[in-house]
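COMPLEX REQUEST
Ligand: FAE
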Amino acid sequence: MLNRRHFLGAAALSSAAALGLTTVSARRADAGVPDRAEAVVIGTGYGAAVTALRLAQAGKRVLMLEMGKLWDTAGSDGQVFSGMLKPDKRAMWFKERTEAPLNTLLWLPVINQKIEPYAGVLDRVHHGDFSVFVGRGVGGGSLVNGAMAVVPKRDYFAEILPQVDAEQMYRTYFPRAQRELGVNTVDPGWFEQCDSYRYARLSRGHAHKAGFDTVFVPSTYDMDYLRREEAGTVARSALNSEVIYGNNHGKRTLDKTYLAAALGTGLVTIASLHEVRSINPTRDGYRLSVRQIDEYGTELAVKQIDARYLFLGAGSLGSTELLLRARETGALPELNEHIGQGWGGNGNVMTARANHSWGLTGKLQAAMPAMGIDAWDTDSVFAEIAPMPAGTELWLSLYLAITKNPERGHFTFDAAADKARLHWTAEQAQASVDQAKQVFDRINRANGTIYRHDLFGGNRAFENRFTYHPLGGLVLGKATDDYGRVRGYRNLYVTDGSLIPGSTGVNPFVTITALAERNIARVLADDLA
Ligand code: FAE
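STATUS: Structure written out below.
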């Protein structure tokens, strides 16, 4: 458990970054978690972190319940996280092998490794042939993501969320989110001559040759730290192939920004390794059934915790499952038919091109992307130029394309398994492949290159069987009102990516953060004043 007693700095973000969040043993945590709080926030990802900070700044006492662990303690190797090259139990959430997005290299299963099941930082949640990657731990997706902090195109934002005042978002809430998240950009002069982004410069040249535009992508990774990594003056993280299994340095994760500031108010308590299993109404709020585990998955306790105001920030999969379970088990029967609808994976497609023998990416690759191919207006594709930081030259260029796929999936509740099941088919994902193929066919033609078929299994050149960007399930204006208040119930709110109807056209966390800022400002003014 974390609260101000373990908080060494003031609320300012700069001191928050150096706050040295201490580890608290499970037993002490157990003793300190209250069984009642005015406001409970489920999860500690983007939406949850914004909500907790703003509630606390308004003087409310907040309890945050997070199923993952607090990542603040070094293992025997002196590191908090295991890197991608030598992953261990810390890499994944209760798996026996790592499940990296790329399966094979040269068709050989050399990427994934056997690990001990543990409360690791990255989860890959399987729904049939399709899977969703999510972060687990205090900080949610910020712990594992590529830190690409992109504001969506205004026209597209207005298209997906027409009921939200775009003018206000772009004037007030997007800038606020960027500031609080510590968004920065790579120095263009350094970018042009560094080794770290040789791979991005190569892909940029290929894109330009095919007539596509490229753009720098802002980041929550400290780009000055990256520059110093390359200069050899600080410990390497992005230059040590660290990203999806956590970064030991350099990244402004939520535990260093919003959550640190929230703890600094003295009004926020974070209980980690606490998973909310069910929500029931009480006379004046909600009662949660919460399962506490240790890092190896042993159940320590099942607790009942009461909340007057309840905020769901467990992410698209987590929050949707909680409300679907509540509706289908009859706990919250007034939840409407939109619970579990309107889901999308932001049109994610991964692909890779084989480079010419003279087209070197270099063996040093910053694991944090800094550039994207912007073909959104012409081809409905925004493609991140992704690293393949294997520590050796692989003669390949990797991309994560975000496409405009109008298809939507939905969830049903499997009572026997007590789980939400996502319904999303390969046919529904095909539009994304078609769009990405159009762009990369053109790039290949212009450069005399071909696709790589050895990375994703089954000889495929495009991987559309996973997403990093789950969005929707509790869509704004449908499952909730236009500010995230759940329809049918009072004092029950959704704060996270499940509000966004399946697509943002860019990497989503800035949108999730800004929308959460907007919604909590209204909720504080109207409901909790
Ligand atoms: P999220 O950050 O997922 O947080 C939800 C939290 O709730 C997690 O900590 C869960 O452990 C916790 N939780 C779930 N269920 C429960 C429960 N029942 N009880 C207690 N706790 C629970 O939610 N986005 C970008 O914009 N740029 C990127 O570069 C980028 N790269 C990515 C790379 C990877 C590998 C991944 C997996 C994602 C990436 N994303 C990126 C997506 C981004 O991280 C994601 O959209 C946000 O984290 C979603 O924020 P939410 O607040 O919805």
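REMARKS: The domain at 89-164+183-245+344-466 is CATH 3.30.410.10 (Cholesterol Oxidase; domain 2). The CA atoms of residues 74 and 80 lie 4 Å apart.
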